[in-house]
Design goal:
It is a single chain. With about 230 residues, the protein is mainly alpha-helical. The protein is about 75% helix and about 5% strand. The longest helix has 29 residues.
């Protein structure tokens, strides 16, 4: 009961704050972008017949909880489903923008792409870390310097806090993975699937980079775009 009340309160605050700063479309759309991502994890876990539930909201987003997967293969597929659903939501927002010419939906599309791109950094607890561990711990080693770089260069305090927490957890998780990878049968996976998964991961990253970095820069200055829907 307390958890339900907390989630209702969290949703209400999010809608009121973002609705006040921008507009109702943006606040509801932002909430939907978070839920779309988590729906990807939720329904994919259901597909594998795992017990799963919506965990709730946090200051950094939302999460789902499911029982332990039978293999790292299942874990990787559940992980990648979140960003896939998130990008589908971003495309829906973009098509609504084309129909309405309302910049709110263009901003929502951009933010959704950006959030899901960041989630693909190959370090646990991010989704990219669960994908990378199915291929090789070496990929996780590449993600740590990237997180450190983003932490150093980021100017926003909230982003720095999130990156610092992920960096600490990710460093520990990568250390644990390195020790267990060759000994634990959980990580045994056929080479063909590794190649397919890695190929899909790289292609997906490339597509998001093209959309998030190149395409939106062509559309115009992102800061000006966001300012165009802000109330102050």
């Amino acid at each position: 009961m307390l958890k339900k009340l907390y989630n209702i309160l969290a949703i209400s605050i999010l809608i009121l704050v973002l609705g006040g700063a921008f507009n109702l479309y943006f606040s509801v759309g932002y909430l939907c972008s978070i839920l779309a991502h988590e729906a990807g994890h939720f329904y994919t876990a259901k597909y594998f017949n795992l017990k799963v539930r919506f965990g709730g909201f946090t200051p950094f987003g939302a999460f789902v909880v499911h029982e332990e997967t039978a293999s790292v293969k299942e874990s990787a597929i559940i992980a990648v489903a979140g960003p896939v659903f998130g990008v589908v939501f971003a495309l829906v927002c973009y098509f609504i923008y084309l129909l309405t010419e309302n910049n709110t939906f263009l901003v929502l599309s951009y933010i959704s792409v950006l959030m899901n791109l960041g989630n693909l950094i190959p370090v646990k607890p991010l989704d990219g870390g669960f994908i990378a561990e199915a291929v090789s711990p070496i990929i996780c080693y590449l993600g740590l310097p990237l997180l450190l770089y983003l932490f150093i260069t980021s100017e926003r305090i909230k982003v720095k806090v999130i990156l610092f927490i992920v960096l600490i957890i990710g460093t520990y998780q990568t250390y644990v993975l390195r020790k267990k990878y060759k000994e634990d049968k959980y990580y045994e996976i056929d080479r063909k699937f590794k190649i397919k998964l890695f190929s899909c991961y790289i292609i997906f990253l490339f597509i998001l980079l093209v959309i998030g970095v190149i395409y939106f820069k062509i559309l115009g200055n992102v800061a000006d775009l966001i300012s165009s829907i802000a109330r102050f």
